[in-house]
């Protein structure tokens, strides 16, 4: 009905000046007319232009006065010929109508406000306010002074009204042609295909979004970093054990048993099974010895090393536990140089905030060969980080129980215009490597960083809880850009 009205009108007239008026003259809902105009506009049957019109509508208060009369008129009607006391009049009208009524009636000089009595100065009044409100309610215009007065009394408020002016478009026809989207067998058989008009292809229309599995940004970045390691000739270490013994997580790494990181405030210990079943006994003895008395030119920590402490199971706090296991295995055979990496989850008993969770992913790389020096470490770090797009690096001396020397790694972030910490590194200590049985001239250079940090920077996420955990918006997982890391190496 709306479509017939619009097309029919335009067939005989140049323009629909105002869709709002057009709709109300025909008793059609304006929304329906607007939808029709939009659809016809899409097929270029019509050209439409926005017009904004300001209209006035009654407030709730304005609406009540259209039935009850304005307060000043109510007041006049309530005053008897001999006058009335303020108290009595207020009781009759209620405080609000009384107050407004008095003010307006006095302004209109309709009443005499005596000290005790209120009396009428006029016998008959015309309720102009009510009449004006009724006009507005019927959609009729009133003069600007009246608008101003009613607006000041908060009886009306403006409302913008959006409508359209409509003209014939380039494809105008008095009736919409049915366009066909598919050619059918019937069309062929009946010969209809010669006559029918087909809908044009819309090459810029978006396709249906595909519902399928999608990769989380962390997985995408992990995949690219894996490739970078592979390109550099590194092998992946097996990291499929979240549960680790304190021995591999700490003791084998020459981390003393009193170290604060071994406290339950920092580490999650397991209740069941609370201890590990098997450790390589002769190696355990050498680790005990190096902690207690040193060796290999070290004095050790000189304390009583306890087996029970080493047996305690925990959720690994770093993937260096895996590196330690791998180096031990390497030491059991004739020495061959190795380049290893891992990327997997670690756990720390930490207070959760916008940059920390109790679990995250570590990226770790190590090179094990004869005669390696700190220069080799710096060289490998430059190679690795430049493939992540970080070409400006700085190093700061640091401390790890298992590395000496140790260096924190900083990279200059061109966007943030500052140096940001991107990782930690060092050369594994002889106190760690010698008890494993690695030859004396074998050194291991290693580094570690989190996967979350570069992912957050790359994907512009500043709260880790938006990236990982139960508060993550599934939309982010469904729709995120590809990770270009390692794709554009300069
Ligand atoms: N394990 C260290 C950490 O948790 C990272 C690291 C790995 C440091 C290897 C030095 C060498 O931060």
Structural description of this entry:
The protein has a seven-stranded mixed sheet, with helices on both faces. The radius of gyration is 42 Å and the shape is elongated. The chain contains 19 helices and 15 strands. The protein is α+β, with helices and mostly antiparallel strands. The model has no long low-confidence stretch (mean pLDDT 92). A hairpin with a 3-residue loop joins strand 4 and strand 5 (117-120). The structure holds phenylalanine. Phenylalanine (PHE) binds at residues 318, 320, 364, 400, 403, 424-426, 446-448.
Q: What is the radius of gyration? A: 42 Å
What is the strand content?
15-25%
User: Looking across the biggest beta sheet, what order are the strands in?
Assistant: 7-10-11-15-14-13-12
Category from helices, strands and their pairing: alpha+beta
Mean pLDDT: 92
Small molecules (ligands, ions, cofactors) in the structure: phenylalanine
SSE order and pairing:
Layout: H1 2-12, E1 15-16, H2 19-26, H3 30-42, E2 46-58, H4 60-68, H5 71-78, E3 84-85, H6 86-93, H7 95-107, E4 111-113, E5 117-120, H8 128-137, H9 144-152, E6 156-168, H10 185-190, H11 217-231, E7 235-236, E8 243-245, H12 246-249, H13 281-292, H14 307-311, E9 313-315, H15 320-331, E10 338-347, E11 359-370, H16 374-387, E12 393-400, E13 403-413, E14 418-428, H17 430-436, E15 442-450, H18 452-459, H19 474-478
Parallel strand pairs: 7-10
Antiparallel strand pairs: 1-6, 2-6, 3-5, 4-5, 8-9, 10-11, 11-15, 12-13, 13-14, 14-15
Helix pairs in contact: 4-8, 5-7, 6-7, 13-17
The structure holds phenylalanine.
Residues 318, 320, 364, 400, 403, 424-426, 446-448 line the site of phenylalanine (PHE).
């Amino acid at each position: 009905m709306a479509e017939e009205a619009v097309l029919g009108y335009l067939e005989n007239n140049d323009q629909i000046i105002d869709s709002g008026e057009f709709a109300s003259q025909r008793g059609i809902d304006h929304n329906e007319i607007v939808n029709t105009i939009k659809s016809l506009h899409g097929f270029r049957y019509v050209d439409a232009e926005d017009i904004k019109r300001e209209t006035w509508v009654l407030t709730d208060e304005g609406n009540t006065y259209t039935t009850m009369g304005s307060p000043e008129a109510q007041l006049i009607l309530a005053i008897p010929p001999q006058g009335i006391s303020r108290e009595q009049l207020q009781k009759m009208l209620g405080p609000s109508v009384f107050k407004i009524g008095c003010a307006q009636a006095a302004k209109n000089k309709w009443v005499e406000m005596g000290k005790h009595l209120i009396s009428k100065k006029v016998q008959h009044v015309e309720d102009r306010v009510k009449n004006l409100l009724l006009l507005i309610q019927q959609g009729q215009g009133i003069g600007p002074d009246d608008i101003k007065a009613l607006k000041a009394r908060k009886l009306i408020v403006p409302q913008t009204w959006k409508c359209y002016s409509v003209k014939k478009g380039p494809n105008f026809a008095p009736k919409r042609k049915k366009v066909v989207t598919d050619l059918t067998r019937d069309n062929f058989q009946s010969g209809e295909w010669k006559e029918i008009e087909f809908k044009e292809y819309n090459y810029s229309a978006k396709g249906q979004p595909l519902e399928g599995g999608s990769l989380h940004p962390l997985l995408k970045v992990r995949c690219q970093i894996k490739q970078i390691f592979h390109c550099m000739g590194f092998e992946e270490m097996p990291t499929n054990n979240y549960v680790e013994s304190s021995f591999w997580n700490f003791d084998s790494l020459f981390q003393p048993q009193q170290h604060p990181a071994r406290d339950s405030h920092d580490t999650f210990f397991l209740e069941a099974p609370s201890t590990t079943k098997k450790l390589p006994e002769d190696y355990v003895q050498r680790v005990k010895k190096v902690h207690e008395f040193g060796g290999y030119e070290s004095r050790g920590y000189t304390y009583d090393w306890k087996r029970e402490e080493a047996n305690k199971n925990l959720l690994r706090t770093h993937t260096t536990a895996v590196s330690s296991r791998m180096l031990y295995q390497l030491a059991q055979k004739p020495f061959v140089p190795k380049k290893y990496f891992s990327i997997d989850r670690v756990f720390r008993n930490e207070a959760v905030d916008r940059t920390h969770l109790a679990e995250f992913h570590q990226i770790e790389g190590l090179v094990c060969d004869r005669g390696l020096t700190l220069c080799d470490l710096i060289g490998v770090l430059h190679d690795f980080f430049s493939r992540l797009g970080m070409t400006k690096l700085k190093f700061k001396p640091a401390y790890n129980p298992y590395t000496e020397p140790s260096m924190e790694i900083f990279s200059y972030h061109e966007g943030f215009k500052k140096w940001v910490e991107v990782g930690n590194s060092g050369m594994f200590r002889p106190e760690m490597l010698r008890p494993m049985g690695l030859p004396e001239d074998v050194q291991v250079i290693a580094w570690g960083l989190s996967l979350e940090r570069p992912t957050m920077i790359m994907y512009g996420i500043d709260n880790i809880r938006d990236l990982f955990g139960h508060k993550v918006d599934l939309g982010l997982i469904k729709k995120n850009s590809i990770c270009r890391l390692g794709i554009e190496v300069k």
